[in-house]
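Human:
I keep going back and forth on a fold encoding question. Comparing notes only helps if you start from a blank page. Show me how you would write down a chain together with its backbone fold. Write it directly below this note and I will take it from there.

Assistant:
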Amino acid sequence: MRQVKIQSHYGQPIILEQCSQCGGIWFDESELFRAKQGESDKIELLDTEILRAPANIEGLARNCPRDKAQLFQFKDRYFPKGIILERCPSCKGVWLNRGAFTRFQQARKEFTRPKEKGSEDKILEEEIERILAMHQAGDATGTLERLGRFLSTPMDRNTLLPLEADQGQPEAENTANLAMNVFMLVLRALMLR
């Protein structure tokens, strides 16, 4: 392992360890997430074609370079797909195989890029505008009726899209969803003003 230097978001240096044979990189706790965007280009230049190609780490047991604890594969549904990361249970350090740091930074860059509004977003905005227009016109009964229909639509917790009729939820979860939907509606209304 050799030491390589990158910059954090705030310009502070971060010293990482990189295997000179396989190109894998060791990140101490939180260093991966503190790395400034584009820093992967600086340290994965040993042989870009080899280092950018994915490496298969399935079935290999690795030990932490700090405390020798066996690493385990990190799995999280919010972590970019296709990037295999191994983590130390003791020191919380992270091992990325060659090319994975570059792919991680590319995925993080894509994640922060503003997304275009889809048709569901436009429909939701139109419905909120209609409810607000009814309220501003003084139609309290119509506003409450439309708002009630809007808020009583069961929503998928992950996508915030209406659930199909056969995908109902338990009463306690419906109450929590109703409260969250009211809160979200108020926030959206404030943002539209």
In short: The chain has a mean pLDDT of 78.
